[in-house]
Write a structure and sequence with these properties.
Elements (H helix, E strand, L loop, with lengths): L28 H10 L6 E6 L3 H11 L4 E6 L10 H8 L8 E4 L3 E3 L3 H11 L3 E6 L3 H4 L3 E5 L5 E6 L8 E9 L1 H4 L2 H6 L7 H9 L5 E5 L3 E3 L3 H12 L13
Length: 249
C-alpha cells in the first residue's frame, strides 16, 4: 500500500513517494520491504499507488528487474483527492486473484520474518496482524495498541489510547485469507473509516477471530522526516539488514 502523498515530509516527498526515498548505496526504503517479501516467493507483488507517483514505482520495478511486480493505480494526483488506504484496498478486490495476501504499508521497515509469520498463519487458519512491543506505556500512546486473550486472539485495537491496555503496537502488516480480505467492502458499506487499514483490521477482529503475531528486533514506521533520517542513519551503519534479494541495477 503506497497511495499517500506524505505531506508531513514535504519538501522531500513533493515529487517522490516516501517509499522511494534513498537510504545509501543506491537502496531506497521500498527495497527493504520488498526484499523480505521476496523471501516467501510470492506469486505477485501488487503496489497500490496514486496516479502522481505511478511512474516512479514503475521505474523502480524496472530498475530492480522485478518482473512479478504489478502497479495498480488509483486516480488521485493530490492529497485532497486520495480515497484512503481502505478504499484503495477495496478497489483492488476486483483486480486481484482470490488468494491469500500479505497487506503491507510500503514504509514499514522491520526485522519481521515473513516466512515465520506465514507459518503461524497456516497453523491457525485465521487473519494475522504483526505486533511489536514498544515496551513503554508512554510510547504506546502514539500507536494502535492491541489487547490480547491468552491464546493470542485480538480482543480489541485502540488507536493512540490515553490508557494503553498493553504495549503491543499493531504494525501495518497483515496476512489474510481471501474470505477475510474481501470483507473490506462489507466494512465500507457499514460506514467504516476509509483511511487507515488498522480501522478495517479492528472491525474484522470484532467479526471473526484475528490473531497477533509478535516479533522482536526492530520496527520503523516512516511517517516523518526525523524518522526517515533515523532509518537512513541506522541503515548506513549496518544495524538494519541489507537487502539480499533486491539488486540495485
Amino acid at each position: 500500500m503506497a497511495g499517500g502523498f506524505a505531506k508531513r515530509m514535504w519538501p522531500l516527498t513533493l515529487d517522490k513517494p516516501k517509499q522511494l526515498l534513498p537510504l545509501s548505496d543506491g537502496y531506497v526504503v521500498l527495497d527493504l520491504v520488498v526484499d523480505e517479501l521476496l523471501g516467501i516467493e510470492p506469486d505477485e507483488i501488487v503496489i497500490s499507488t496514486n496516479r502522481k507517483f505511478a511512474g516512479n514505482f514503475a521505474g523502480w520495478a524496472r530498475s530492480r528487474g522485478l518482473d512479478n511486480v504489478r502497479i495498480e493505480i488509483e486516480e488521485s494526483t493530490k492529497e485532497e483527492e486520495k480515497p484512503g488506504a481502505v478504499a484503495a484496498l477495496a478497489a483492488l478486490i476486483g483486480k486481484i486473484t482470490e488468494d491469500e495476501y500479505f497487506v503491507v504499508a510500503g514504509d514499514n521497515v522491520t526485522s519481521l520474518d515473513y516466512a515465520d509469520m506465514a507459518a503461524f498463519y497456516r497453523r491457525i487458519s485465521s487473519p494475522v496482524i504483526a505486533v511489536y512491543d514498544v515496551e513503554s506505556p508512554d510510547l504506546a500512546k502514539r500507536y494502535g495498541i492491541v489487547d490480547l486473550s491468552e491464546d493470542g486472539r485480538i480482543r480489541s485495537m485502540v488507536e493512540k489510547p490515553e490508557r494503553p491496555p498493553s504495549t503491543l503496537a499493531a504494525t501495518a502488516i497483515y496476512l489474510m485469507p481471501w474470505r477475510s480480505l474481501s470483507r473490506v467492502r462489507e466494512y465500507l458499506d457499514s460506514g467504516g473509516n476509509r483511511d487507515a487499514i488498522g480501522y478495517f483490521a479492528s472491525w474484522l477482529a470484532g467479526h471473526e477471530p484475528v490473531y497477533a503475531y509478535k516479533f522482536k528486533g526492530y520496527w520503523h514506521d516512516i511517517g516523518s522526516i526525523d524518522e526517515y533520517d533515523r532509518v537512513r542513519d541506522i541503515f548506513s551503519k549496518g544495524s538494519i539488514a541489507r537487502p539480499r534479494r533486491v539488486n540495485v541495477v
